[in-house]
Amino acid sequence: MLRTFFLSLFLLCSLAHAQDDPWQALMQAYDASHNLNYQGVLQAQHLKDVKSMEITHAKYGDETYTRINLLDGEPSEILTKGKSTIVYGSTDDNVVIQKRDANHLFPAILPNSTEQLKQVYQLNFGKVDRVADRKAQIVVLMPNDDYRFFYHFWLDKQTSIPLKMIVSDHNNQVVEQTSFTKVKILEKTDLAWFKPNIDLSKKYVMKEEESIPSNLPRFWEIKQIPKGFKEVSSKVSRIGGPNILNHHMVFSDGLAYISLFIQPLTKGQKPRVGNATMGVTNVSARYENGYQIMAVGSVPIKTVETFSNAVNFN
Amino acid sequence: MKEKISSLFDNEISERELDSLINDVTKKQENQKNWMYYQITRDVMRGDFVSSTKLKDKIMDAIDAEPTQLGGFSSSMNSNATLKSQFNYWPHLFGFVVVLGMLFTFMNVNIQTETAPVLLVQDDIPSEILSAHYAHTASTANYFVQTGFNE
To answer: Over the range A242-281, which residues count as b (16 or more CB within 10 Å of their CB) and which as e?
Structure first.
């Protein structure tokens, strides 16, 4: 009883402080999205494409558990335990099971520190709005430069869970939008729900990727990338022959993510050059020293172009 | 030996090979004929040949009958008929090449030794690249899941 009292007191004090400092509100939102128990239905929109999904999230012991079930299109789901993520994706005849690296899916999308964000974004409170029948405080991250988009978050007034996110460009056009249509906070939960919905009529196929050390010596340097972006992961995969390796690096400023690919061109393969836009994603391609360089991201075209030009071969 | 003499007149021979070539040419009668033939051919193509016009015509006809390097025979263009007008363009062509070279230098354009045809990425974005990107960076589950299975 005493423990619950002090926890409630701490939460109230934190929320009071967060009401003055938007960065503190953002940290509260990070904590709430990871450590509270909740269940709801989300709607994700990329341009004209809208998809619905059901999410259940719980903290059980020291570990966090999440299950996301896609409600539209082919049945697919994601089960996450801590940093381990398993994806079950349906094809016509099979269910393909795939292990993935740690994800950062909405609402648990915020970084665990605001220091990196403070370098490149200004954060301001907006008005109080209503999302999924709950009061929400809007906070807006405005970029200091034109290498990244605007991020708008609707944070639940009661719990700080992000209820809605809109990413917009410098012309105030919505790039992507994710929002709870309904959500409930779970007081207590067990893990009976943490299992995939098995379709017995289909064959289950494991899709495992070959493990190649990602700390292989690099024959290039990355120079002059936009401020605030840091390499957060790298992966090496084999394409074609034994010595043909695809290097995939991921850079982030805490919210925006950019993939940078460096791979040798195989015989007969035509190099790709120039810039392209596909939906909300921009691509910049370059060819040098027999290597195809591609930068991909939901960021302005200028940003992916800067990343593809940042590769300097030794 | 014919190839070596031809290379000499095309300025494609090294200095080291030059001495031994001259020795060989002066020794054999067959080589002396080839030497003269390539010298005349070069002079005709440059417009420097001052012998009879009949001989010049014969040489140009023979050049016309040779296959071009870019493919096939140049049936549509008679070198003899167009020789004079073509040569008038050479100073302009030379100027164009010099300007192009300067442009490449100033723009720091990397000229590939092998000319590889390129694709504009807007015409063909590799799906495996997009899938790999979304599988690591997507913020919403639909992109995170579905793109990973289009590979």
So the answer is: eeebbbbbbbbbbbbbbbbbbbbeeeeeebbbebbeeebb
How many structural domains comprise chain B? 2
CATH code assigned to A220-313: 3.30.200.100
Q: In terms of domains, do B6 and B75 share one? A: yes
Residue from A8, A55, A22 nearest A159 by CA: A8
Contact list in A for residue B127 (CB cut-off 8 A) is none
Tell me the mean pLDDT in the region A64-68.
95
Q: Between these two residues, A111 and A197, which has the higher pLDDT value?
A: A111
- Cβ-based neighbour number of residue B77 at 10 Å: 11
A89 and B120: CB-CB below 8 Å? no
Distance from CA of B104 to the nearest CA of A (A): 16
**Could you tell me if A153 lies within 8 Å of chain B, comparing CB atoms?**
no
pLDDT at A113 over 60: yes
- CB pair distance less than 8 Å for A73 and B146: yes
Which residue is it, tokens 């067959």? Answer: B30
- ipTM tops the 0.90 cut: no
Same domain (yes/no): B78, B135: no
Name the residue in chain A with its Cα closest to that of B126. Answer: A272
Is B102 part of any domain?
no
Please say if the pLDDT value at position A302 is more than 80: yes
Among A72, A237, A250, select the one facing B137 at the smallest CB separation. Answer: A250
CA contacts within 13 A on the Cβ side of A185: 16
Q: Do the domain assignments include residue B108?
A: no
Among residues B36, B63, B83, the one where a domain terminates is: B83
Higher pLDDT, A267 or A80: A80
Residue B79 lies in a domain: yes
Percentage of chain B beyond pLDDT 90 is 0
Of A227, A221, A267, the closest CA to residue A247 belongs to A221
Tell whether the torsion through CA atoms of B115, B110, B13 and B5 is positive or negative: positive
Out of A72, A237, A272, closest to residue B118 by CB: A272
- Tokens 């105030």: give the residue: A172
Contacts of B120 in chain A (CB under 8 A): 272-274, 276
The pLDDT tens digits for B29-66 are 656 655 665 565 555 555 555 555 565 666 666 656 55
What architecture is the A2-205 domain classified under in CATH?
Answer: Clam (2.50)
Q: Where are the domains of chain A?
A: 2-205, 220-313
Residue A100 near chain B (CB below 8 Å): yes
Write out pLDDT tens, residues A204-222.
Answer: 888 777 777 777 888 999 9
**B99 within domain boundaries:** no
Q: Domain range spanning residue B71?
A: 2-83
The mean of the pLDDT values for chain A is 89
